[in-house]
């Protein structure tokens, strides 16, 4: 630790306002424009407010205390309402508040958390956390450096995520283009005319009754567990039967499986006479919207009758093979782009951790910060 820095307990550098929190059950909230905060951020908007100032919130409970998928410390300002799932801290200096926010988001709190099933950081444990505190002038320098570096990192990540989305959209447009070029010899057939439905062979197993094993246990969106025994030992196509992804299409709703598998009642099972046709139909279903075949918006469902009625444009086996070859080449290109950008995102997160570690060890210099900011400079957007 650098000369001039002090170790202080959190309660020595801020005032805890947890006693002013008031939770409101969902059915008693009056809708309004005031942000209503919980452990991980805004959970609703309400009519009235409890606070009207700059404050720091720190998650009190929830899996994210251990998983750290997103920040556990976040600043709020102006009129707000906070429930009893986030600690409320007031600081004399906004610079110190920001410094502490960065510090909490850089360290593990496992030793202060009770309960693994329902992780909780109680007020006593929170107040006891020791913080390395530099003089205010150094705090300002560190916060300024972190603000600039993280702004560059966040912009770089935003561009990368846009690039990934552009690659997905380009792949989708190429799929649509390929399937719209119907030539001579193409026929339109219902799905149940070209495949056999094996839904009656599915057997769901409640989680408490599953025996752990090596067999993939499939649901609506892919593997959900591994079990002992198997139902199928075949090449099959699964199509999601229910779930929000039927409309959102965040990931494919049709996916091939092979070998020994077990399937629950959330995915339709289709058996094709030809593996070529199975793959062709898999690509086709993932290229089209199925909104007209889906019932229920709150709980979307594609029932068997609707699934069987989906019209599929089918060319000869030879043409199917040519189309699959084109799509697979496009898919390899898309995957390559996506994988490349994932590596870049991972490296940016490592850079973020490195900056934070150096900052709170008193090792972050102005010259080094410039180099770190340059390393995080955002790149251009793919497709522009």
Textual characterization of the structure:
Helices cover 38% and strands 23% of the residues. It has 384 residues and is α+β, with helices and mostly antiparallel strands. The chain has three domains: 6-132, Adenine-n6-DNA-methyltransferase TaqI, Chain A, domain 2 (Alpha-Beta Complex); 134-185 and 316-384, Helix Hairpins (Orthogonal Bundle), CATH 1.10.287; 187-314, DNA methylase specificity domains (Adenine-n6-DNA-methyltransferase TaqI, Chain A, domain 2). Strand 13 and strand 14 (222-227) form a beta hairpin. Helix 4 runs antiparallel to helix 9 and helix 7 (275-285) packs across helix 9 (317-360). The longest helix is centred in the middle third of the chain and has 45 residues, at 136-180. It starts with 5 loop residues before the first strand and ends in a 9-residue tail after the last helix.
